[in-house]
Amino acid sequence: MLKWRTLPDPLVTRMAVFANKRSLLVLTTVLVLLAALLFWKTLAVKYYAYRGERLLKARKTAEALSWFQAGARLAPDDPRTNFLMARAFRRLDDYAQALDRLRQSSEAGFAKDRVERELVLTYAQSGQLDRVQREVADLLQNAGEETGEICEALVKGCLRMERFEMATMFLDAWQSDLPEDPMSYLYRGQLLERRDANTQAVEEYRKAHRYDPELTEAWLALAGGLAKLEQWPEAIQFYERFLEQFSDDIPASRGYGSCLRQHGKLAEAEQVLQRLLKADPDDQVTQLEMARLEVDQGKPVEAAARLQPLAKQRPWDAEVRYVLGVALQDTDRIDDAKAHFAFVAEARKQMARVPMLADRAGQQPENVALRHELGVILIKFHDPERGIAWLEAALTLDPKHRPTHLALAEHYERVGDTSQAEKHRALAGGIEK
């Protein structure tokens, strides 16, 4: 066999040139493929962001988030993708994720003014309105095309913190600028419903539905509002229409089961609730609705057994306490029932004060005592998460407010969070009485 060194010189030269050309071709091909891959990746990330942004504008936030997440898997540090994910998470009330994505977007060099605006909206929507009061005024003056987005975040924050007068002010401004925006009517309906003005609330939900017949949030709001007015057949129709598209939506399924129960369709209601409990046996809200059904079915012993552990886990929940009281009363445990009914009566009395106190707090941004009072009421009688938000607002104004530290220490002791309880107990102990 001939060896390379024995070949004639011209042939050796030609083969060497051929080998060099082949190597160059391979290298060029690799570089072209890499460039194409990078170009495709860039295009794909932009396409995912484009699709997601369109879905955001169409109010399909969960679907939008899935597109942004697909883009983030390709380019985790893409600033625009992270910004849009932050907005989606904010709309879905996942504020920790929203803040984290905003941080990543800012670190990657996204437009500073847009990041700051979204940060203000995140704080405002989460209920930290006092923290961004000055920035909110600037946002409203320069809202531009984002009037609806800004007003929605502000109204949600007001409703979260029971600040109904401020919510009304933002809603009035929203509807003045965008009189055909269906979301403004949806949120005004929610405000009216929170004030137990259910007939007027349903009227607002119908306006939202007229402006956008495909607005699924309006279908769900109408279902719940009509149920409160005991207009069961139409409420059931809206629930079923919603669930045709979102069959896995747990709150909607639970509301549907409740509506069936109140309409007297106990067997159908039981099927819906059993299906939910099979999927998640620890769902406390579904457990409460099942207990209501058991009371209606004449099974108070079963209802009481279901609710007694729940009442220990959620001692602030007046609905749990009321249904448990009814179940105990039906089993002739009158004294035990009276204790729960007494709590419910006090809860209703105290919660009736909350909107007035919250509105006063909005008018008195430096009033620590008001924020402390609101926090204590909400922790004890309604919603610890909202109560903690008010107590933290008090500490923002006065980090050494001893009654607030004690209230937080007592709450955390009650729920078994010893580290937080000890922290606030120590802070309270280090403050002069």
What share of residues are in beta strands? under 5%
Give start-end ranges of low-pLDDT stretches: 1-7
> What CATH architecture label of the domain at 40-263 applies?
Alpha Horseshoe
| Helix coverage percent | over 70%
**Oligomer kind:** single chain
What Rg do the Cα atoms give?
A: 29 Å
What does the main sheet amount to?
none
Label this structure with key terms.
433 residues; mainly alpha; Serine Threonine Protein Phosphatase 5, Tetratricopeptide repeat; 23 helices; disordered N terminus
Question: Can you describe this structure?
Answer:
- This protein has about 425 residues and is mostly helical.
- Among the domains are: about 40-265, Alpha Horseshoe (Serine Threonine Protein Phosphatase 5, Tetratricopeptide repeat), CATH 1.25.40; about 355-430, Serine Threonine Protein Phosphatase 5, Tetratricopeptide repeat (Alpha Horseshoe).
- About 80% of the residues lie in helices and about 0% in strands.
- The protein has 23 helices and no strands.
- It has helices at about 10-55, 60-75, 80-90, 95-105, 110-125, 135-140, 145-160, 165-175, 180-195, 200-210, 215-230, 230-245, 250-260, 265-280, 285-295, 300-315, 320-330, 335-350, 355-365, 370-380, 385-395, 400-415, 420-430.
- The longest helix has about 50 residues, at about 10-55.
- It is globular, with a radius of gyration of 29 Å.
- It starts with 8 loop residues before the first helix and ends with a helix.
